[in-house]
């Protein structure tokens, strides 16, 4: 990826500063392996310098575990002297932060080697390399995310979350009423500020719906014809939601399974492919099952799904989300307008036929999740992989659980996958697996409250 000409970059910066004389600071943001946004805050006067020369950040930012500690077995920490790389702005991501009391802007960055080449361990670069394979086929990726989250109280009970009190009734919600408009009204000010904040930041959020648990909601992003930009929007939307909710004296969680017995937080993505020459969706069909390109894309996604689980469900908690009653598929499957399967093909307008991937949790890094799914699609298209017959009816009653159901098995599948290694560099997979195995080791050596309850006085 070439860095845009300096004159173009400076024009974007200068125009923004001219239009926003009130801005005092700019947050320079970069998403790490876990999708956690990190970076630096600079003063307004330094913005043009960032566009001209970039900023330095350590390469180890992409070797951090969920607690922000460097995992040395990745080789990106002390082994290289915790050396810096250079980060450049991503054009079109400079915007206001509407929640700030002191006027502040934000700018998304991506990391490069000092010589200018993209840095291989930046998850955005991982995705860009997969997208290049579609460019070679003359295809444009159109994508849109659906992001689920819980509003939670800022005060936890013994470290566990609880729903926030309604600003209207003062009561904590107990309802699991999916799509209930009244529940939207209970938190209308916060939710409306999220949509308005997204508009300010150029994030194409077009709807919020009530999901199937107390104070759980979903924001739908409109499709864009750029896979990288779709992921940028998902990362920035999550940050926006967190900060707007905090302004309303609430917290949020995108944890895959924050409450036992309630629905988890998913991250669904809709994907279609457009032929650059004709401008037509290659999945378009009156009868999707008869479209060979669609079938092959689905076939590739299903074949690579077990190996992709480490990217789709990257945390220990991710696997607690699965269960038939919560519409989370546990086997590679597909169907037409069927929400019990892993890959749903909506059956609406022929031109709008697309793949809806329904496996990942909201705790996934959008860039890595998209990389894995697109790898499967490309693999299926180029090898003409057939997916088998679509599932009709309840897939949970027809298919046994076969996807990895824990992080350790998922990492083994990823580490052993020859197909994914053709799309995502083995060097990056090694770094990802090292970080997640480090987290897993710490988790497995901890002692839970349940273990004390069961064993302390009984064995």
From TrEMBL:
Signal peptide: none annotated. Pfam families: Gln-synt_C. Its cofactor is Mg(2+). The keyword Nuclease does not apply. One of its GO terms (molecular function) is ATP binding. It is an enzyme of class 6 (ligase). Residues 21-116 form the GS beta-grasp domain. GO terms for biological process: glutamine biosynthetic process; polyamine catabolic process. Its EC number is 6.3.1.2. Residues 123-459 form the GS catalytic domain. The keyword Magnesium applies. Keywords: ATP-binding, Ligase, Magnesium, Nucleotide-binding. It comes from the Bacteria. PANTHER family: GAMMA-GLUTAMYLPUTRESCINE SYNTHETASE (PTHR43785), TYPE-1 GLUTAMINE SYNTHETASE 2 (PTHR43785:SF12). Belongs to the glutamine synthetase family. This is Glutamine synthetase.
């Amino acid at each position: 990826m070439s860095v845009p000409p300096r004159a173009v970059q400076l024009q974007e910066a200068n125009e923004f500063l001219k239009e926003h004389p009130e801005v005092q600071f700019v947050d320079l943001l970069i998403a790490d392996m876990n999708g956690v946004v990190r970076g630096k805050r600079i003063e307004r006067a330094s913005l043009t310098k960032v566009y001209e020369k970039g900023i330095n950040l350590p390469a180890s930012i992409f070797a951090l575990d969920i607690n922000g500690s460097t995992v040395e077995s990745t080789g990106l920490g002390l082994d290289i002297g915790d050396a810096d790389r250079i980060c450049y702005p991503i054009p079109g991501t400079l915007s206001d932060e509407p929640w700030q009391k002191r006027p502040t802007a934000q700018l998304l960055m991506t990391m490069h080697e000092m010589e200018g080449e993209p840095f291989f361990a930046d998850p955005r670069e991982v995705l860009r390399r997969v997208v290049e394979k579609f460019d070679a086929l003359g295809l444009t990726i159109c994508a849109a995310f659906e992001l689920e989250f819980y509003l939670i109280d800022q005060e936890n009970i013994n470290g566990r979350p609880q729903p926030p009190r309604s600003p209207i009734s003062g009561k904590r919600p107990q309802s699991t009423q999916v799509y209930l408009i009244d529940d939207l009204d209970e938190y209308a000010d916060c939710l409306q500020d999220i949509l308005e904040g997204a508009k300010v930041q150029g994030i194409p959020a077009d709807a919020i719906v009530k999901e199937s648990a107390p104070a759980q909601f979903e924001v739908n992003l409109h499709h864009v014809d750029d896979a990288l930009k779709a992921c940028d929007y998902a990362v920035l939307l999550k940050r926006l939601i967190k900060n707007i909710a905090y302004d309303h004296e609430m917290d949020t969680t995108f944890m895959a399974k924050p409450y036992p017995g309630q629905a988890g937080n998913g991250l669904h993505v809709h994907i279609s492919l457009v032929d650059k020459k004709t401008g037509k969706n290659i999945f378009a069909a009156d009868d999707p099952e008869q479209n060979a390109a669609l079938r092959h894309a689905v076939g590739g996604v299903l074949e690579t799904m077990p190996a992709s689980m480490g990217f789709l469900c990257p945390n220990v908690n991710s696997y607690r989300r699965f269960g038939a009653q919560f519409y989370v598929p546990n086997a590679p499957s597909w169907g037409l307008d069927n929400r019990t399967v892993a890959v749903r093909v909506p059956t609406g307008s022929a031109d709008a036929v697309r793949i809806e991937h329904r496996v990942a949790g909201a705790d996934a890094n959008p860039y890595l999740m998209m990389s894995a799914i697109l790898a499967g699609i490309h693999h299926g298209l180029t090898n003409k992989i057939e997916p088998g017959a679509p599932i009709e009816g309840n897939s949970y009653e027809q298919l046994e659980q076969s996807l990895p159901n824990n992080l350790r098995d998922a990492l083994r599948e990823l580490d052993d996958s020859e197909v994914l290694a053709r799309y995502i560099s083995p060097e990056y997979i090694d770094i990802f697996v090292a970080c997640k195995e480090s987290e897993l080791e710490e988790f497995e050596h901890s002692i839970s409250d349940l273990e004390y309850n069961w064993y302390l006085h009984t064995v």
